[in-house]
Amino acid sequence: MRTALISEVKDISGRMGGYYALMNYKYSNLCTKAEPASLLPVDIYIDATRMDMEQVAIVGSPREDQLSIIPKDEHYLDPIVRGVFDAHPEFKLEIKYISEDLKREDERYLLYTMPEVNKDRRDLLANGVKSLYEETSARIKAVFAKDKLNLIQGVQGLPAEEIKELEDALDQAYDQNKGMVDQAYELKRKEIEDAYDRYLKNHPDEEWKPASISDSPSEPAATQKQSKTSATPDGKKPEKKKDFDVTKGFVMGSDE
Fold first, then answer.
1. Sign of CA dihedral 33, 36, 41, 44
2. Residue 84's closest CA among 111, 60, 107?
3. Counting Cβ atoms within 10 Å, is residue 112 exposed (0-12), middle (13-18) or buried (19+)?
4. Lower CB density within 10 Å: C or N end of the chain?
5. Would you say 163 and 149 are in contact if contact means Cβ atoms under 8 Å apart?
6. What are 197-234's pLDDT values in tens digits?
């Protein structure tokens, strides 16, 4: 295949792959366990300057369902609390001390516990994951159909065997990207079911129930009511519950 056409196929594949990467990023924010990547959308403002989590704190995972955040400066603690609360109101917050015996104010850190995946949260996550999957599948299909048509129309003067080779390469690129999307969806579904199984083991009085998943791809994703946390950023209980859309409200971030 001609070099220029190979480059075109790579560009089209890259555009489809971008939607796959965005879906995976959003999946990391639908937490069933502690995911450091879930902190990427957290906005932290120090003296009106936005900073990333890695600039202001050290993040760890002492348990599969917990994230620890140790501020690099004691004055960063409150801005971090505000940022995490805005991005993940469902995380349960505890303020701990590095030394529980001394309880020094300059040695406080944050411990966040992921909410248990009970039947309601399992349904919420399953619908959110399905909605993102359907949206991503539709987007890569649209990119593929439009770009393939435009590219093939632009090379009609080439020999038939070269056009056929180009079509095959484009089809292969689509199949590869769609396969990655399908696999990510199945893995996330399994992760949610595994989390629900763990919940049931810890609550033997509750029976397993099938997931309630919407069959309508056009139906808006379910929203999760804000869970009760031990404190809001100002130390008071929230006056009003806040709707949290599990598929929206996130901004792209970059890993180191």
1. positive
2. 111
3. buried
4. C
5. no
6. 999 999 999 888 777 776 544 333 333 333 333 344 44
